[in-house]
Amino acid sequence: MFATGTALFRRRASSELHRICLWNTSIVTSRPPSLSTAAAAECKGPPPIRVSLTESAGRCVFATRGIAAGDLIHSAKPLVTHPSASLLDEVCYYCLRRLQKEASSVDASALGENESSSTSTCYFCSESCREQSKVFHEVEKGLDWSAFDAHCSTRRLKYPLMVKRLACMIISGAASVDCLDLLQPASLHPDIVMEMEEEFQLLKDIFVKGQFNNEMLTFFTKEWYVNVLARIRINAFRIELVARSYEEMITSATALVAADAAVGNAIYMLPSFYNHDCDPNAHIIWLENANAKLKALRDIEEGEELRICYIDASMDFEARQKILAEGFGFQCRCLRCLYRD
Ligand SMILES: [Zn+2]
Ligand SMILES: [Zn+2]
């Protein structure tokens, strides 16, 4: 995620951006197994976008052809997800899909796991999700998280849980140490860094007790923890599902039913490169799980920059400016804000 009007992140080499575009293309064309054929057909071909660096606004996403209102621009799979701590028994531990109430007695008992007295039960919506979680979940299962989970729960911290999962993914070989390095970090107040260092120590103690060999933990330094969390703080998306299933979505009269409360958080690469606009031409939605869909809100011309709104666009000018400054660290200078609308 990068903010309009700020001048950060110009230093990334264009070759890195090229690599990201290719990487994301492969993600779009490898269709999520959970989607029906009709939905998957929407994702055909490379996405009609390019990521470029600009002097005025850093990294930007541009349309490479005209895109019609309502069109799917591209999909994106998350790099890291984590369910809301209060919903561990209601959503899939991996893809954040809501467990079907009527099927939960069968599926949950078949796919749920009660690892240890110190860990909550977690559920998988499918064998595929269980399989994809297997490596990092094996690392998680062997450790006692009670001190760290209690710390996060009393302070209502959600992002450290994502760092915990990422660390387990790295230990198990499911993710690389630098997988979030291309994302913009939040600038951190020294007090926040001190809190992060406390969390780091809690996690470090747990990993050390887990008796991993030193080589596996060489990446896990205070600097790594703070750097990753600084990126997650500004780039994580709060996932609100608009439908419990794709079928529900297409049978819905409005196609955009009221969103459920957040099921968790996730972090992505390409969706994070979209700049903010209080009157955006694109938006990001989640249907039945954490696979993100970027959609055009209106007709977009070739060469036009694609922007999403990071916050609730219905807020007034002052409220938007305040949230964007405090939460994202920039002053919005979009057209709507210039007119103080
Ligand atoms: Zn799942
Ligand atoms: Zn604005």
TrEMBL record:
Matches recorded under InterPro entries: H3K4_H4K5_MeTrfase, SET_dom, SET_dom_sf
Gene3D superfamilies on file: 1.10.220.160, 6.10.140.2220, SET domain
GO CC field: nucleus
Pfam families reported in the protein's UniProt record: SET
Domain spans labelled SET: 47-311
Name this protein carries in UniProt: Histone-lysine N-methyltransferase ATXR4
Origin species: Canna indica (Indian-shot)
Species lineage: Eukaryota, Viridiplantae, Streptophyta, Embryophyta, Tracheophyta
